[in-house]
Write the structure tokens for this entry.
Amino acid sequence: MKITSNVIQDLLPLYLAGEAHADTVRLVKEYLETDAELAKQVENATMYNLSEIPVPRKKEAEVSTYKKAQWRTVVLTLGLAMIIVITVLTALLILGAFVLAAPM
């Protein structure tokens, strides 16, 4: 399989962050020797300290974040429902007080 620029660009965040395996580093370096334009982009990224490119997250972290967000949505929904119920009950009590206090 021929290594294309797209494959190398997918690997660049790991490479620039220093998180790539030695084999990947070697592959990227070898490719950059053959692609002057991409090598210049990598040099610019390094020169301007763009090594803070986010590394792809692990599936476990994504699942954990999703579960936390799902739980927060449930809690917020229940809280909103409680506020609505309390508001309706308060309105009914106030309305009932007016009805009982009104002369007949």
Remarks:
- The two ends are 92 Å apart (CA to CA).
- Residues 59-101 form the longest helix (43 residues).
